[in-house]
Amino acid sequence: MNILVIGAAGMVGRKLVAALLAAGQVGGKAISALTLADVVAPAAPGGTLPHTLVAADLSQPGVAEGLIAARPDLIFHLAAIVSGEAEADFEKGYRINLDGTRLLLEAIRHESQNAPYRPRLVFTSSIAVFGEPLPSVISDSHEHTPLTSYGTQKAICELLLADYSRRGFVDGVGIRLPTIAVRPGLPNKAASGFFSGIIREPLAGQEALLPVDESVRHWFASPRSAVGFLLHAAALDTGLLGAQRNLSMPGLAATVGEEIAALGRVAGPKAVGLIRRVPDPVIAGIVAGWPQAFEAKRARALGFVGETSFDEIIRIHIEDELAVVSK
Question: Where are the alpha helices (DSSP H) in 44-122?
């Protein structure tokens, strides 16, 4: 199996590549080669598996065609700019998040005209495709009403993935990721970044800013679960999806206050004391229109699995990133 990972230099991309190398196979098929692509050069994977590293912008002419020329059997499309940046830079958001995806789909379609070719394409969408009015728990049949440019871009890409799959050009699976926490590394430009920051920074002995009220409720999964979702989607029997190619992933609904309580249970009151409340009306306004909880019945029935407590999410961060024993 020849695999292409677009967005391989990102946090989830790096973890996905490590998981692929550790497994050596997907769905019982041995991995024969990896192509890792991103706007910056991805790190070379360890081991002896043949690999190609590509530093290129998917939204630029000719890049998608170059990535598809080797006819990868499995494509993970993770490349995107995040919600806050897409809202701040309208043109960049549409160029990266929408145009890049459409160019990739078109490159696959044109390649299939030369000889039969229908790769599995796993696309990372987002719960940002949903916006007000929202029920307290969102069903699998709830319609898209995004209230951000990022959510709109992801919603359009979901429709494209379904249509290109319907026409037989790709075998697509779209997975709507919950907000991923706790994200390691430095803060990014996502409006949701504080959900990770109020856990990550205190665990590292640093102050964290909380821009919203503790009553804010949201839908979460760990980076470990995100990788598990991607791998499961890659091996899924897509005949079970029918025409509905996009799935809301399982997750955990928790308030900011419940996050902080979990931090206290895992790391103690000193860590909680490093959180400083600094209201930010812009971030609060964006977050107010986001969904809070999902049924995710279809995904669970298909074997996707997420966490069941925020304590578990914090402990996963400690195990995977800090390599220390929690209290």
Answer: 63-68, 83-88, 90-93, 100-112
